[in-house]
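Lecture 7, part B: from sequences to assemblies.

Below are the input chains for today's worked example.
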Amino acid sequence: MKTGFRVFLAAFIALGASWCGFVLAPVLQLGTEKQTTVLNSSDIYPEQRPGAATLGLQVYRANDCAACHTTQVRQDGVTCQISLTSLGKNEPAEFKKFIASLLELPQFRACSNSVTAEFQAWNGELPETVTNLDADEAGDMIQHINAGGCKAEVQVVATGADIARGWGSRRSVAEDFLWDDPVQLGDIRVGPDLANVGARYDLNWQLQHLYAPQSLVKNSAMPPFRFLFQVRKIGSTPSPDALNLPAAFAPPAGYEVVPTDDAKNLAAYLLSLRADVPLYDAPFTREIVDTNNP
Amino acid sequence: MNENEKIDSAVDASCRVPLLALFGGAALWLVVGLALAIVASLTFHKPDMFADCPWLTYGRALAAANDLLLYGFCIPTGLGVMLWIFARLSQAELCLPLVPIAAANIWHLGVLIGTVAILIGDSTGFMWLEFPRGSSVLLFAAFLLIAISAFATFGARRDRELQPAHWFLLAAVFWFPWIYSTANLLLLASHPVRGVTQAVIDWWFSNNMVFVWLALVGIGTAFYFLPKLAGRPLQNRYYALFAFWTFILFGTWCGIPHDAPVPAWLPASSAVASALLILPLFIIEFIGWRTAWGSVKSKWDSGPFCFVGSGVDFFFLSGLMLVAMACPQISRATEFTWFGPAQIQLQFLGFFAMTMFGAVYYILPRTAGFDFPFPKLARVQFWISLFGLALFILPLAIGGVEQGMKLQNSQIPFADISNSMLPYLRVSTTGQLLLLLGGLIFALNVFGLTLKWKMAVLKKLLAAIKAPLETEEVKA
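Predicted structure of the full complex, as structure tokens:
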């Protein structure tokens, strides 16, 4: 490397390679990404966020909420489970025997111990769910069970610590961020992951949590965002938006805490964070939602 | 004074004003940045400290502090040192000296605008690119101006053969405009790219800025100063060539996290590149030790030598942390934890700042023609910074691993995890205070020197004004 030109050429090639790899290629591959459909459904995903939520994304950006919160759920892998919904004409005892004979087949050797244990603990109530099977085992077993006159279905379940914490039902994928500008994935979890926070809490919770996090999460390390709220004298009629705070966090008598537009938008954005539908590249079987317990 | 020394002092004198302009602003931003970082970490001591003050809320203060360290301190100091090294290696006076003076002022203005913008909530939301468009245009223009002066000085060199320091510094001059314009055009222009492509480009930019660019400048500087200070040639040129090539080939591909929600080939190629990065890391550390070996004992009491020497060691450490974070098995425990910030801060304050402190302590007295007002404080600053780094980085790194292990265990409630991090964060604030003290000593020396120089200029000026005019007698 004796001349300036050679250094320039070397640097151009070596450095330019990474530009082609991490700028050009992703723009070509992902730049034209379109909406997709939800797995086993004709619903379009993702839908654009509502107006207030789109404005709230900018409040999230302005205060750099991503300095403490990620919006990406990780996943280790998937397992399959079989959910037995009907025994047909069979009795539970007969069915247990049938399963025991089934598990002697060579293809079930790997999973037979855990499945045997789960069926032994079963008291005959339906639906019964058997976990921890791989896709081949589950597919094979369900054929045998259906042939035996029972009804069962295979469910795909994502695994991993983030999933087990209830932060999401699948990993985050590129589609989840299609409408966001800027995309703020975050790189540190000082606070919990927010990829699916809209499915966990309601509007009042979010607003109160922004104003006084410690009133809802004991020992929370989150700073209160009181500057997004207005503490004002109650006028002739109390504001319908006023927060309903516990005594320790409430303003002095005669005053009320009212969210500003920024606070409302930010809460709307947080509510719109719901990456909870199965997609082709991140499948899972949707659980039956218990509507009594939001 | 022999011929060579005469040339050296002429070269140094030609760099005086541009360097004072670049370093003066950088020293100021270093202090402001470190102070803002402490403001941010106060939130971990008392969460509602800034609950009513949007300007200093955690996210804004932290982003401003980080950008001040990178754009305010690291880049202008690096550019100043680079201009001087180019002039010295060329044995020629700095070309177009007015251009870098103007550029330094434009640059610092850009940093000021960007920082205020972040604090009032106008940040762009992209990591390491938080400065809004207006400010980044100023920074880009200032960089190009300095690059023009650097290239002109480089072209005027007497010895045509290039030195290892040349390779690294030239690549850095060339690479910054490329990555900075790409990132700004694709992320902040009126039609930005969509979806996660934004995140990929931001990761690429962050890695190339914070890891690759700083390393090119810092290692280039170290490869110039280590032989000079140790009094023996670089050991040796061929290893350095290999390190340079492998570093720009592999270093530039790092930075996409393992679990990123992007097509799998992106993080996979990053992981491969990070594994290969081990090669240049070990070779650079090896070159550093082989060059400095033997003079460690005798030169250990010289300020610049221990700053630059420890800078190379910290680069090695920070690089190893980066490689560890890219390793799929380890990344599970380090991703989304304090380990990441620990690596970045080690890169800034351990590797780059230490190397630059050494370089500035060597360069500035020579260019200004005065010694620092408190030259002995350089050693004090070295030890304070070293303790500060240990107290700042170690708790974050250890805490980060603990946090990562606990995140993997879904039985531990999240609130418990974040509370178990608080003691670590509080200890690291002590480290930050020490680092701020070190920064203050540096600023004191730089400002004191500037003041001395300004006084001397003023005295000269006064003397020139007061000098009696030569009068010619008029014959009657």
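Note for the exam: Chain B has 15 helices and no strands. Keep this in mind when comparing with the next example.
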